[in-house]
Structure formats: C-alpha cells, structure tokens
Request: fold
Amino acid sequence: AVVSTQSGHYVREGTHLCYYHKGNDKVSCGVEFEYVDQIGECVTSFGYKIDLNNGLSQFKGSFDSAWSVTGVLEKRFEAFPFCFTLSGLVNHKKNQAKFGIGFTIG
Reply:
C-alpha cells in the first residue's frame, strides 16, 4: 500500500513542514523544510530509504541545502543476532567529513 504523510507547524520561533512518502515495500522518501527565526536559518532536506536483499540490508541517505550529504548502509545477518553498519557524512560547505563503522547486537 502506498502511504504518504504531511505535517507542519508554525510558531513564533519558526516553521517546520515535512512530507513522507512510502512508494512500495522497498522504497520510501521524505522532504523536510525548517526555518528558525532567531538565527534566520532555513534548511531543506531530502531523505530516502531503500530495502535491499529481502529486508536484510538497508541503505538510508539524505542531502540538504546546507550542503550536507549522509549515507548509512545496514546489513543484518540471518544466522547471527547483530547488524553491521557503515555510515558517512560529508559537508561540502564546511569542508568536513565523518565516517563510522558499527555493530548492533540484538
């Protein structure tokens, strides 16, 4: 089933709007807009999730108007109770990059 959700709120401090869409069992995406009045900052983000290998692997990623690009690859193992994770974040405007490796037990 195709699912989509919209939400938003406006307060004196700023505005937040988002839209989420699940295209099918394997692909979903979303868009978010946030404005903070106190610092005059506005960021728009686009994110997505793709299920791979019959749900045993996922790739999640996002990019935004602040020049940040993120990605996470998760791999679950059927025979073992843990998940292997690779992640990365690159901010082109700030010339920063962060990468990580992790294991989740459970």
Notes: The chain has a mean pLDDT of 93.
